[in-house]
Write a structure and sequence with these properties.
alpha/beta; eight-stranded mixed sheet; 330 residues
């Protein structure tokens, strides 16, 4: 059994808004193991990024608040650690790649300066010359050509793919135990996306780190992940190993997501049939229905789903496969 790096239990995150209090993450449980990748998937607004920011203790307070739960990183509950000490862990032992590298990188500092800043904060024993050399080494590691030149350049001088590689270099500079990648290939073309994902798999093998891959792209999940957790309206609705989830999805929402992946005829290259869709819209977190949150979009919904059975629990159906549904698919 692989070593458990992260254990999130019953996480609840709330936000105060003009319309009142809203629960963005409601009772989430996650486990991440050394050398393994957990995919966190779901539509926009499902709570994926809020979950990630909670692990990093980056939820803005106010208006946000981690109202309940535990976030255990190597047996330490991160919610009990003072923020000053949390800064020693964040970027050092737990790192994050944010969605948009152009807004995450500071435009007035060179990319070398920004990597060196991470090293200055967490590896104080390094001299300025050693930090610069390490920055060049990190740029070389993530596949940026002519790193000795690029280390002196500013973010606007780099392409989108290179900026994303710089973000990865910054995240990996201190060789973290856990990497959270929030849509790491957003807005990148398919070729660069494949290179970035391959790079992350290679570095994971070399460093043995655990990864949380946050995405709405199930193609990325199939390519990179060992286990998958599917989120809907702030809750985990299904979790399993990646092969089981794709072959035997048990929640109607998971089935709908998988069926919406475009497929092509391997012999002719022609697109097959019209893509199925998940009818309806995600309900507002202010107006969640009684019973199952997915009932309004589900072809299998019964009266039990609509409130008479209460709220469905996340329950095991065997082989570490969990589903939050009164009528799991056969």
């Amino acid at each position: 059994m692989a070593e458990k790096i992260l254990d999130v239990k019953d996480l609840v995150v709330e936000f105060n808004t003009d319309r009142g209090k809203v629960t963005a993450v409601n009772g989430v449980n996650l486990e991440v193991f050394k050398g393994k990748t957990l995919g966190l998937v779901g539509e926009s607004g499902s709570g994926k990024s809020v979950t990630a920011l909670s692990i990093m203790r980056l939820i803005p307070t106010p208006p946000g608040n981690i109202a309940a739960g535990e976030i255990k990183f190597r047996d330490k509950n991160l919610l009990d650690i003072p923020l000053d000490h949390m800064r020693e862990i964040r970027g050092n032992k737990v790192a994050m790649i944010f969605q948009e590298p152009m807004t995450s990188l500071n435009p007035v500092f060179t990319v070398g300066n920004q990597i060196e800043e991470v090293l200055e904060l967490h590896q104080k024993e390094l001299s300025p010359a050693q930090r610069k050399e390490k920055a060049i080494e990190m740029l070389r590691l993530v596949g940026i050509p002519s790193p000795e030149q690029r280390v002196e350049e500013y973010p606007h001088q780099l392409s989108g793919g290179m900026r994303q590689r710089v973000m990865i270099a910054m995240s990996l500079a201190c060789e973290p135990d856990l990497l959270i990648a929030d849509e790491p290939t957003t807005a990148l073309d398919v070729t660069i996306q494949a290179q970035i994902l391959e790079l992350m798999k290679k570095l994971q093998t070399e460093l043995g780190m655990g990864i949380i891959m946050i995405t709405h792209d199930l193609g990325v999940v199939a390519e990179t992940c060992d286990d998958v957790a599917v989120m809907y309206c702030g809750q985990i609705v299904e979790t399993a190993d990646v092969e089981t989830l794709f072959k035997h999805p048990q929640h109607p929402y998971t089935k709908g997501l998988i069926e919406s992946i475009p497929s092509f005829d391997s012999t002719t290259g022609a697109k097959k049939d019209r893509l199925p869709t998940i009818e309806g819209m995600v309900p507002s977190l202010f107006e969640l229905p009684e019973g199952c949150n997915f009932q309004g979009r589900c072809a299998y919904a019964s009266e039990k789903c609509k409130g008479s059975g209460g709220e469905p629990k996340l329950e095991s159906i065997g082989n570490e496969h969990l589903v939050r549904c009164f009528h799991p698919l056969a």
